[in-house]
Amino acid sequence: MKIGIDLGGTHIGAGLVNDKGDIIMRETVATSTDHEYTVVLDQIKTLIQKIQVQARNQYTITQVGIGIPGILTRDNTLILECPNLGWKKVALKKDLETLITLPVYMGNDASVAGIAENVYGSTKGYHNAVFMTIGTGVGGSIIINDQIITGVHGVASELGHMIITENYYDCNCGKNGCLETFSSATAIIKLAQQRISEGAKSTILKRASSQLKAINAKHVLDAAIEDQDPVGLECLESLATHLGIAIANLNDILDPEIFSIGGGVSQAGEKLLDVITQAVALRLTYPDIAVPKIVLAKLGNDAGIIGAAYLDQYV
Amino acid sequence: MKIGIDLGGTHIGAGLVNDKGDIIMRETVATSTDHEYTVVLDQIKTLIQKIQVQARNQYTITQVGIGIPGILTRDNTLILECPNLGWKKVALKKDLETLITLPVYMGNDASVAGIAENVYGSTKGYHNAVFMTIGTGVGGSIIINDQIITGVHGVASELGHMIITENYYDCNCGKNGCLETFSSATAIIKLAQQRISEGAKSTILKRASSQLKAINAKHVLDAAIEDQDPVGLECLESLATHLGIAIANLNDILDPEIFSIGGGVSQAGEKLLDVITQAVALRLTYPDIAVPKIVLAKLGNDAGIIGAAYLDQYV
How many structural domains does chain A have? Predict the structure, then answer.
């Protein structure tokens, strides 16, 4: 049995995960609002100890894995940057190992979600899989020959900042043309707001109670899929086309077996998947030889805990 | 000692390669003009036997490696397509192993060039390296943790057909926006011809003996570097900018230690490298954390033989 920990800016989730990928015990705590490292470290320790107490005499716990919303060193021992928590250069693995008696593994949160899908979800059984999470931004993880590609500086699989083509606004990272400025919740909300501001009629506004600022990605995608709303359809098409370019390029580079699309936006489901699959098909270099499977991710919020528990198998 | 074979549409080169990467014996033959498979197979066998005769009583030959200008199956045992030779689905490895008494390894020619640079050239000592060859088209090879990434269908590292942005002409592959329609010899010749046809004055035309159709990549790059010719500089800038986008994107995806630029265009040397390096620097997602080395390839025409001889170590 392994403990997986999903470390977030608002909550920390911990779970005891069995060898089938089921979470059989679970503990959660609100992340200390000041995000003070030593306080959060203590919170993590307490969560682990609570699970250890419950599991006592029943299960043997062999290790702890933690998904980190930030950048780690190549060997996954040091957190270099953790923007949501305001941390820089913290040795969470080492610090935690001195507090508990178990080995600790760390991994980037997108890597962890990709691992969870590979162990227990949409890419199970595939040795070469790319996972893309489409939410506020775009994250990813790449598994080649059953190993996570972390890169020599620990920042590989940074799929949201691939430059796709020129865009009408810059990315938060300072660059122009990043995938996540086209194919994220943020991007389609911005595009819908822009079109409606320009005078386009749309059911999106009604779905958002006539509040331009209240528009969310679900309003946009529901308008496209349920209402055939032109603005919604333009946003869906833009998201899918640019994601299609990114997937076709990744297919040229890595030629994996499967791509899995997760994150909040993926809840738009089969219609979204169809449009993405068509966009990719138009851009494949070897449509007769190398056509990847493209599927929706299966695991939701539990991916963070499940994937963290299995980190040791992929590093 | 190993034999490396560079199989091309016009010539077949074979060499005996020692463990320092030196070619110590060499044989060449003009490829049979009809490209008939059984004839070329016999030519390859004869080249190998000539080297075996010369090496007899002096060196032990353990294996043969062949660089193939085409697409192989994932396990590198079957040639799926070899456009320059007009071959489809030929079992060169198996056929050759029945004719000679040595194990035969095959690999894509761009992979082979990347291996040669890694064994004996510009990326020696690096475990994670991307090699890009910029000639008539753009090819590439990716080494991650000392292994060539071949992909599940054998077509990974197809770097020339990554879509970079919209272009004014379509690629031979049928897609629009492929890297090699911006950053290849063909692309800069086309752009120079277009500008001169539009009436731009340029020293390129003089270098090409006033023949628009005679313009080659060296004319364009020499005009840029030696004459500061505006058309030449526009072509150089276009090549470097789009290659810069490709390298920055590959850095986001793979985060390797080093990129090596080879092929005919790379003979433009340090000035070309400077412009490419600047183009990449502007587009890095983590300029403080993950800045790759970018270098020129060191090996020229011998890379095909040297890399082929070392194929067994990278598969």
Answer: 2
